[in-house]
């Protein structure tokens, strides 16, 4: 992999063994680790502020660091949550707060590295624990999408390119953006925000618009 174009991460974790392990996995995969440390500040200032992806341990100082996660996602950072928690409520809440995807530490490099590479390219990645969380979520607060909104949303999931979606439906890219923005607004109004593409995929799975086989 060309070092100039290599994907980059910053690691936020307060366990030295995890930091060392993730560093080694990233190095083996050609992913540059710009910085690492036990506080969210390492991703906000210094070299880590320029990382393409934040690998984020949710459990900092003994409590779920939802505020720190929100700080990162509100700033537009792509966050891969890498946590010891395997319960559905925690995973889904992280998606609602804007995380790109959610993995447990038990899922290891087999899923963490593909997740980072997918998120760098703005592609969804759904590891096993997150798949189970999505499948188990049957909350009734589902927004009603228009037929065109649904068509554009699903086409975007399939193509990974708004330009291709625009060509398919003979629309402008700006119009495609408008449809996707409307879907985000509807989910936010329903109390289920989806600020990233991965979160929209999660919503579509939860609401039966697509299935895991379709991904």
Output the keywords.
215 residues, alpha/beta, Arc Repressor Mutant, subunit A, 2 domains, two-stranded antiparallel sheet, 9 helices, 7 strands, globular
User: What's the Cα radius of gyration?
Assistant: 17 Å
Which oligomeric form is depicted?
Answer: single chain
Structural classification: alpha/beta
What CATH architecture of the largest domain would you give? 3-Layer(aba) Sandwich
**What is CATH's topology name of the largest domain?**
Rossmann fold
Which word captures the global form?
globular
Provide the succession of SSEs. Answer: EHEEEEHEHEHHHHHH
Order of strands side by side in the largest beta sheet? 2-1-3-6-7
Give the count of helical stretches: 9
Give the termini separation.
26 Å
Structure summary, number of beta strands: 7
- What proportion strand? 5-15%
Determine the CATH superfamily of the largest domain: Response regulator
Pfam family, one: Response_reg
Domain Response regulatory: 8-120
Protein name: Response regulatory domain-containing protein
Keywords: DNA-binding, Phosphoprotein
Task: Describe the protein's topology.
Elements: E1 8-12, H1 16-28, E2 32-37, E3 53-56, E4 59-60, E5 63-64, H2 66-74, E6 79-83, H3 88-96, E7 101-104, H4 108-120, H5 128-135, H6 147-159, H7 162-169, H8 173-189, H9 197-206
Parallel strand pairs: 1-2, 1-3, 3-6, 6-7
Antiparallel strand pairs: 4-5
Modified residues (4-aspartylphosphate): 57
Domain Response regulatory: 8-120
Pfam family, one: GerE
């Amino acid at each position: 992999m060309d070092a100039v174009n290599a994907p980059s991460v910053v690691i936020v974790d307060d366990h030295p063994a995890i930091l060392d392990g993730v560093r080694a996995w990233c190095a083996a995969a050609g992913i540059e680790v710009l910085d690492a440390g036990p506080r969210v500040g390492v991703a906000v200032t210094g070299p880590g502020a320029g990382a393409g992806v934040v690998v984020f341990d949710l459990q900092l100082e003994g409590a779920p660091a939802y505020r720190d996660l929100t700080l990162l996602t509100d700033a537009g950072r792509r966050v891969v949550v890498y946590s010891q928690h395997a319960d559905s409520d925690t995973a889904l809440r992280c998606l609602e707060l804007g995380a790109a995807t959610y993995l447990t530490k038990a899922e290891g490099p087999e899923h963490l590295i593909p997740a980072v590479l997918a998120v760098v390219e703005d592609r969804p990645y759904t590891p096993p624990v997150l798949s189970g969380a999505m499948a188990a979520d049957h909350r009734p607060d589902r927004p009603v999408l228009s037929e065109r909104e649904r068509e554009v949303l699903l086409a975007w999931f399939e193509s990974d390119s708004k330009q291709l979606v625009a060509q398919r439906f003979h629309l402008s890219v700006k119009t495609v953006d408008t449809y996707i923005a409307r879907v985000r607004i509807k989910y936010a109004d329903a109390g289920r925000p989806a600020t990233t593409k991965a979160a929209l995929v999660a919503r579509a799975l939860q609401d039966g618009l697509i299935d895991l086989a379709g991904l």
